[in-house]
């Protein structure tokens, strides 16, 4: 049985929290971390996913197909990619050895560096999807590599975080100024439906409150809202993500239940009503079945 400390380690001290709603990844306690793709174990395939952190990725080796929202990109030359936490992405490597760098950083990191936040807002590389995937010209590549190497070696140094955020600004400025935007292809009907499903799921969860419960909770309800047959929606989600509609809904609701238990003073009755349960005992059963703890025990163990 997990102890109170285990719960804290799993649900509070995780540097980069569980990806919502599919692929899950953890790192250490730093707000930002830089990775060398030649050293790290880069995955050949990454199913459609969303994360709770920003990501900048430079691919210099390892061709593949990258999907961002409704757009598909054939990556066969040096490419810089700026990924917002809300973006739905996928990756399929097709050939070659992985090379390049990537970095991950939290929203809190941006809030602690106003100049970085201002540059991000001004250049809109993370928010404007037409600017998020950039082809790096051969003449510009050495300069980008030097920036990445500088960031990589600043990790662990005194004032390293301040230096890294400055390098990020330079990299964004150079990306916006010197490079060409990649030309996307349509990602296809399956990804269109998947994108709509996750968008609808996030919209439902973002509107949760204890005065008006969530409207859509079942595969049938989501499929009806999208004017699709539930079997078809289940099939494409299972094919593209490895999980069916119900598992995605359950996982997202569990994440939200944990957040409500930890970050609000709502009663268990209010939380159970907000996430669509007819009574608190059913909510308690759902939460304990999927976490091993009752909602009350989870809240007390983590917050004590």
Automatic annotation (TrEMBL):
Domain of life: Bacteria
SMART domains documented for this protein: HTH_ARAC
SUPFAM superfamilies in the record: Homeodomain-like, Regulatory protein AraC
Single GO MF annotation: DNA-binding transcription factor activity
Domain HTH araC/xylS-type per the UniProt entry, residue ranges: 195-301
Keyword Transcription assigned: yes
Keywords associated with the record: DNA-binding, Transcription, Transcription regulation
InterPro entries reported in the protein's UniProt record: Homeodomain-like_sf, HTH-like, HTH_AraC
Name of the protein: AraC-type DNA-binding protein
Organism in which the protein naturally occurs: Chryseobacterium arachidis
């Amino acid at each position: 049985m997990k102890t109170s400390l285990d719960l804290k380690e799993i649900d509070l001290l995780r540097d980069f929290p569980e990806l919502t709603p599919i692929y899950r990844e953890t790192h250490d306690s730093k707000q930002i971390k830089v990775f060398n793709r030649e050293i790290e174990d880069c995955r050949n395939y990454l199913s459609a996913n969303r994360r709770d952190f920003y990501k900048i990725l430079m691919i210099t080796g390892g061709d593949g197909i990258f999907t961002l929202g409704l757009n598909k990109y054939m990556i066969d030359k040096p490419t810089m990619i700026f990924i917002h936490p809300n973006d739905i992405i996928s990756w399929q490597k097709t050939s070659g050895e992985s090379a390049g760098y990537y970095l991950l950083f939290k929203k809190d990191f941006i809030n602690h560096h106003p100049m970085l936040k201002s540059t991000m807002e001004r250049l809109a590389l993370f928010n404007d999807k037409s600017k998020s995937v950039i082809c790096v010209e051969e003449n510009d590549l050495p300069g980008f590599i030097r920036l990445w190497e500088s960031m990589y070696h600043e990790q662990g140094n005194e004032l390293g975080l301040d230096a890294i955020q400055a390098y990020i600004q330079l990299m964004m400025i150079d990306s916006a100024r010197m490079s060409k935007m990649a030309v996307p292809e349509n990602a296809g009907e399956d990804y269109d439906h998947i994108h709509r499903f996750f968008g609808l799921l996030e919209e439902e969860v973002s509107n949760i409150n204890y005065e008006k419960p969530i409207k859509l909770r079942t595969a049938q309800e989501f499929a009806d809202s999208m004017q699709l047959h539930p079997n078809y929606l289940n099939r494409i989600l299972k094919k593209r993500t490895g999980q069916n509609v119900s598992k995605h809904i359950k996982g997202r609701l569990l994440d939200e239940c944990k957040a409500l238990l930890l970050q609000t003073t709502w009663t268990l009755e209010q939380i159970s009503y907000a996430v669509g349960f007819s009574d608190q005992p059913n909510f308690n059963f759902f939460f304990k079945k999927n976490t091993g703890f009752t909602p009350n025990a989870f809240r007390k163990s983590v917050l004590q």
